[in-house]
Structure formats: structure tokens, C-alpha cells
């Protein structure tokens, strides 16, 4: 279940040595490289925000509006070229440097020179020990980990400097993992997730209504956000309303807004979520929980783009793309007349299904690494023992990705000061034991 929210931006200037620091987001799966770059850049009065992959970097960009982005030549979740293209489109004024190319035809500036200087220093700090650039591989039980081609070998990158030129080049070892083409914030390399990413890319640029189906915790909201971010509406609000979380009596006013005195307790007029999403996207989670009477009003809005606040005679036009999600079989519900068939057809112009985690166990390791990386931003980054990882593969994950996230969080806490999460720390809730 997701909470209601309006995604906003937070900008908190940081002062280093009495000077307001500029912010750089550093996207790399290589913790060593990030650490060295952080040291160099902090010395140059840059505030560094680290991201272990493209999805995380996107979230950091959204939150901190940095002056620059440094991106590794390989990211675990996104194809770098495509990621860079999206960044240029979404943040045209931002300095973007790849650690492999350094110079991409953009004009030199003091800012850019500083970043290049930091890249050189980071390379010096690495010395000639190429093993230092290799991430520690985590073994996957072969019987279950085969799906992700080459996942057993960690990416190994060797940095070299073209002497006399301010450029850095990454050389790749033959053991390199093939980049996986998915989407911002959507970790997963399975065929099912790549197909989902393809559908999302196709539908994102249009204003088509999308119906996202999938079990609880599979990532339906993640998909909705990806569609929003890849659309021309990306700079506009992404508004979420969980239809199951608001009492029936209040849902209409929450969606459409209300005038002062429209009902008992309406002491002042209020904008509804649809209006708040003007220009952007409205994500209606758990649409199957919407009362039938309100479904009729929603259908009218979807068909003409007009709405009336509760208690108001005025009609207003808004430009909102609607994405709905459900874990219920809506078509079946429509057959049983507990959901309006006409609304179902209107919503399901473009249906997409997010597969259950047990149907794509080859994504388990990537997802686990992703969540351990995220937790590693708040406490020392922990690893799973082979036995702990095997235990993850034995489970059937009825709570899907969200359950995995919670199991790992619990495991990390239970492990206390130890850097490894053992099998005994991987505990499943009794009700969801697989
Ligand atoms: N592919 C993914 N990559 C990274 N994180 C994911 C992925 N899928 C889901 N998550 C994470 O798992 C959690 C649950 O995802 P989300 O809320 O999108 O699921 P949902 O299907 O909308 O759940 P519900 O049906 O309960 O509303 C979130 O914290 C989300 O960030």
C-alpha cells in the first residue's frame, strides 16, 4: 500500500568553509570510486550526493537540483547512453560528465575543469591496483541464479589517463556484465522486466490512460513514476491518491475538491487531487476500491477532461494524465458488476502487468544488492552470506519486492555490528512464509 503524496523538491544549500557549496550527484556502482571522488570534490567545495545506480541518481537529481552529474561508464540498472539522453532532456542546464569520456564537446568552464581535476585525483588515488576497482561478487546458487547472464562476475573497470590531455578513459575487462536496459528506479534484468520497460517507453510520451495490474508490492507505483518521468509531463506534478486509504465519504472531495460549506466540516474551499495534478499525472492506486457512484463521475472526467468541485456549479478544464493501478482482477469485477465495465475499458486503454517476484527470481540478486546499497547510505553497507542469499531464493515472496526490502532491512538490524547478514537473520513473517 502506498501513502498519498505530492512529489516535491527540497533544496537545502550547504556551506563549506563559508561558501555555499555547489552540488554534484555521483552515479556509480563502484563504492571505491565514489569514495575517492567524494574526497576530491569536497576539497573543491562541492557537496557530493552519491547514487549506486541510474534510478537512485534520478531520485537525487529530483531532490537536490545539482549543478552537475558525474556518471560512470556502466550502471547496474540503466543503459548509460539512454540515461544520459534522458538527463540532457530533463535537466538541460546541468553539467554532465561521464567518467570515461570527460569531454563531450561541451565548452570548458571553471566548474567543468574542477570536476575533471577531481576525476584525475580519484584516478591517482586508485593507484595501479586494478583489483581495487572490482566490486566484490556475491555468489548466486547456480540452480536459481542462471537467468541473469554474466551476473556472477562483478564489473571490473580499469581507469587510465591519456597523458597531457584532460580526458579519462575506462577500459573494460572481458568479464564485464552487459548493461541492462530497464528504466529509472526500476531495478530488474529479467525478460519480463525488460518487456515491461519496453511497453513503458512506448506509452510514456503519449497522454494515454494506463492501467497497471499486479500483486501487492510488485512495484506498480514505481512503474507509474517511470511513465511520468519519461513523459513530457516530467517537470509537472505527480500526484498519488490511494483510493483504499481514504474513507468513502471523503474520497469524492479529495479527488474533485470542494467549496466552502459544501458539507459539514468544509470550513474552507479546497483543491482536489485532480486539479493539483494539472499539467502532470494523477496516479490512482487501488482503483478497484473506488465506490460505484464515484466511478461514474470519474468516467465523465476521463471522457471530457472537465470537473466540478463538490458544492460548485462552475466547471473547469484540467489537463491531467491518469494512471490507475489495481491488485484485483478488474475485468472479473466488472463481470460481477462490482466495478463499472465502461470505466474499466476507459482505464485499460493500455494495460500493463507487473510480474510477481516469484515469476522473475533472476531479479532477486539485483534487487537485494540495490536495497543493501540504499541501506548502506545510512549505516555501513552490509553483505549477504551465501547461505543467507540461498534462503532468499527458497522463499516464494507473496509480498513481492516490498517484502524483500523489509526482510533485508530486518536482517541488517539483526546482524548488529557485523558486516555480513547470515541465514539466521533472514526471517520471514509467519503469515507470508513460502
Ligand atoms: N523494480 C524495482 N526496483 C526497485 N525498487 C522497487 C522495484 N519494485 C518495487 N520497488 C520498491 O518496492 C516497494 C513497493 O513498491 P510499490 O509501492 O511501487 O508497489 P505497489 O505494487 O504499488 O504496492 P501496492 O500494491 O501495495 O500499492 C517500494 O519501496 C519500491 O520502491
Automatic annotation (TrEMBL):
Taxonomic classification: Bacteria, Pseudomonadati, Acidobacteriota, Terriglobia, Terriglobales
GO biological process, one term: regulation of DNA-templated transcription
InterPro entries in the record: AAA+_ATPase, AAA_lid_NorR, CheY-like_superfamily, P-loop_NTPase, Sigma_54_int, Sigma_54_int_dom_ATP-bd_1, Sigma_54_int_dom_ATP-bd_2, Sigma_54_int_dom_CS
GO molecular function, one term: DNA binding
Pfam families: AAA_lid_14, Sigma54_activat
CDD domains: AAA
Superkingdom of this protein's organism: Bacteria
Keyword set, alphabetical order: ATP-binding, DNA-binding, Nucleotide-binding, Transcription, Transcription regulation
Species in which this protein is naturally found: Edaphobacter aggregans
Gene3D superfamilies, per the entry: 1.10.8.60, 3.40.50.2300, P-loop containing nucleotide triphosphate hydrolases
Domain Sigma-54 factor interaction: 186-413
Name of the protein this chain belongs to: DNA-binding NtrC family response regulator
KW Nucleotide-binding (keyword) present: yes
Amino acid at each position: 500500500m502506498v501513502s498519498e503524496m505530492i512529489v516535491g523538491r527540497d533544496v537545502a544549500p550547504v556551506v563549506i568553509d563559508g561558501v555555499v557549496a555547489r552540488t554534484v550527484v555521483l552515479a556509480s556502482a563502484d563504492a571505491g570510486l565514489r569514495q575517492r571522488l567524494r574526497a576530491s570534490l569536497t576539497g573543491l567545495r562541492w557537496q557530493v550526493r552519491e547514487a549506486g545506480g541510474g534510478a537512485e541518481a534520478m531520485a537525487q537529481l529530483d531532490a537536490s537540483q545539482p549543478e552537475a552529474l558525474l556518471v560512470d561508464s556502466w550502471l547496474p540498472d540503466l543503459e548509460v547512453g539512454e540515461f544520459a539522453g534522458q538527463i540532457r532532456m530533463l535537466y538541460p542546464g546541468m553539467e554532465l560528465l561521464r567518467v570515461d569520456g570527460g569531454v563531450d564537446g561541451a565548452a570548458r568552464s571553471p566548474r567543468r575543469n574542477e570536476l575533471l581535476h577531481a576525476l584525475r585525483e580519484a584516478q591517482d588515488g586508485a593507484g595501479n591496483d586494478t583489483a581495487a576497482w572490482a566490486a566484490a561478487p556475491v555468489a548466486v546458487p547456480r540452480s536459481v541464479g542462471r537467468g541473469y547472464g554474466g551476473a556472477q562476475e562483478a564489473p571490473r573497470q580499469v581507469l587510465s589517463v591519456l597523458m597531457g590531455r584532460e580526458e579519462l578513459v575506462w577500459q573494460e575487462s572481458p568479464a564485464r556484465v552487459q548493461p541492462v536496459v530497464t528504466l529509472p528506479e526500476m531495478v530488474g534484468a529479467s525478460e519480463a522486466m525488460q518487456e515491461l520497460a519496453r511497453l513503458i517507453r512506448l506509452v510514456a510520451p503519449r497522454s494515454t490512460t494506463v492501467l497497471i495490474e499486479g500483486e501487492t508490492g510488485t512495484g506498480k507505483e514505481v512503474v507509474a513514476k517511470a511513465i511520468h518521468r519519461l513523459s513530457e509531463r516530467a517537470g509537472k506534478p505527480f500526484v498519488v491518491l490511494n483510493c483504499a486509504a481514504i474513507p468513502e465519504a471523503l474520497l469524492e472531495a479529495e479527488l474533485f475538491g470542494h467549496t466552502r460549506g459544501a458539507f459539514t466540516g468544509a470550513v474552507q474551499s479546497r483543491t482536489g487531487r485532480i486539479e493539483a495534478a494539472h499539467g502532470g499525472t494523477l496516479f490512482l492506486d487501488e482503483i478497484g476500491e473506488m465506490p460505484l457512484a464515484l466511478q461514474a463521475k470519474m468516467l465523465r472526467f476521463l471522457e471530457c477532461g472537465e470537473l466540478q468541485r463538490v458544492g460548485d456549479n462552475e466547471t473547469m478544464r484540467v489537463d491531467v494524465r491518469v494512471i490507475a493501478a489495481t491488485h484485483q482482477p478488474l475485468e472479473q469485477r466488472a463481470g460481477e458488476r462490482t466495478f463499472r465495465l465502461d470505466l474499466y475499458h476507459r482505464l485499460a486503454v493500455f494495460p500493463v502487468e507487473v510480474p510477481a517476484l516469484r515469476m522473475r527470481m533472476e531479479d532477486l540478486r539485483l534487487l537485494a544488492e540495490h536495497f543493501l546499497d540504499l541501506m548502506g547510505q545510512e549505516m555501513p553497507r552490509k553483505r549477504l552470506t551465501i547461505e543467507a542469499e540461498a534462503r532468499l531464493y527458497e522463499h516464494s515472496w507473496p509480498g513481492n519486492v516490498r517484502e524483500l526490502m523489509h526482510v533485508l532491512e530486518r536482517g541488517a538490524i539483526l546482524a548488529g555490528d557485523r558486516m555480513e547478514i547470515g541465514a539466521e537473520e533472514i526471517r520471514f513473517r509467519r503469515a507470508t512464509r513460502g
